Task: inverse folding
């Protein structure tokens, strides 16, 4: 995406302006989301129009004007050009998702990780996804493992409603169970001791939910996919720091860290990590 953006705009922006432009952008269905610095405010429409003209699926361009924040992990977006709707249809790994880019959290950059975890699951597993969003992890897992039952929890009612719709769209009713509520409370209420696998794709706060994650495991034993953010100068150090963070987070439990990998770089010297943790 980075090189594509530079190429698209090389005839429309001078070299100084190109250097100031954000190095990446996301395409979610028919929507492009881009960060544009204040110094290029006067060129926002030009940049957006270029994306719509040159990238076939794109019909709307939104500018991200705030960081991801709040319990629902939302970011403020402003329409620059194109159709004024935050709702689009996104396809990934043979699944179709209805997504609201303003009122729900969604990242296309977790595509590889979603497929990786789906392929790790085993027949007849019960899986708890503690932060399910619109259902991407849960539905992709279920598509690749139809004998699994996935409980997809989220506290955002809009995300949970879209998860329900996406379950129907992908014909997985009964395989994926949408649950509206706080993950810790919902586990203690009705999901204790049922799972062989738990997903924790909330790197900002996952550490606070480790106790709940372990309590959802059958007989206190199973696999937990733990996401976190770490600072590091490079990927090798990021993995080392990810091991330290994971070890601290699971220190009160018998556990083995089976694998630690960099999911993506989320900022300068700042990485998202996932650890596959076997709790026994």
Result:
């Amino acid at each position: 995406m980075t090189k594509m953006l530079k190429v698209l705009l090389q005839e429309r922006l001078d070299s100084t302006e190109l250097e100031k432009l954000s190095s990446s952008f996301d395409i979610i269905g028919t929507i492009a989301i881009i960060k544009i610095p204040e110094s290029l405010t006067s060129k926002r429409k030009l940049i957006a129009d270029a994306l719509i003209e040159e990238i076939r699926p794109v019909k709307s361009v939104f500018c991200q004007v705030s960081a991801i924040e709040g319990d629902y992990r939302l970011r403020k977006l402003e329409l620059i050009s194109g159709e004024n709707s935050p709702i689009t249809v996104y396809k990934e790994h043979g699944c179709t998702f209805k997504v609201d880019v303003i009122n729900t959290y969604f990242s296309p950059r977790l595509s590889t990780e979603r497929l990786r975890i789906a392929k790790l699951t085993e027949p007849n597993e019960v899986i708890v996804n503690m932060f399910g969003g619109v259902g991407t992890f849960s539905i992709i897992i279920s598509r690749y493992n139809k004998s699994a039952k996935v409980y997809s929890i989220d506290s955002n009612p809009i995300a949970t409603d879209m998860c329900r719709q996406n379950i129907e769209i992908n014909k997985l009713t009964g395989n994926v169970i949408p649950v509206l509520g706080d993950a810790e409370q919902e586990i203690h209420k009705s999901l204790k001791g049922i799972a062989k696998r738990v997903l924790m794709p909330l790197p900002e706060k996952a550490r606070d939910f480790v106790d709940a994650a372990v309590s959802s495991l059958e007989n206190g034993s199973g696999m937990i996919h733990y996401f976190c953010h770490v600072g590091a100068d490079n990927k090798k150090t990021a993995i080392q720091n990810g091991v330290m963070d994971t070890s601290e987070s699971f220190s009160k439990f018998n556990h083995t860290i089976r694998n630690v990998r960099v999911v993506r770089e989320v900022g300068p010297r700042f990485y998202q990590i996932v650890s596959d943790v076997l709790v026994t």
Observations:
- The first strand starts at residue 25 and ends at 28.
- The domain at 2-85 is CATH 3.30.300.110 (GMP Synthetase; Chain A, domain 3).
- Residues 60 and 85 are 8 Å apart (CA to CA).
- The two ends are 42 Å apart (CA to CA).
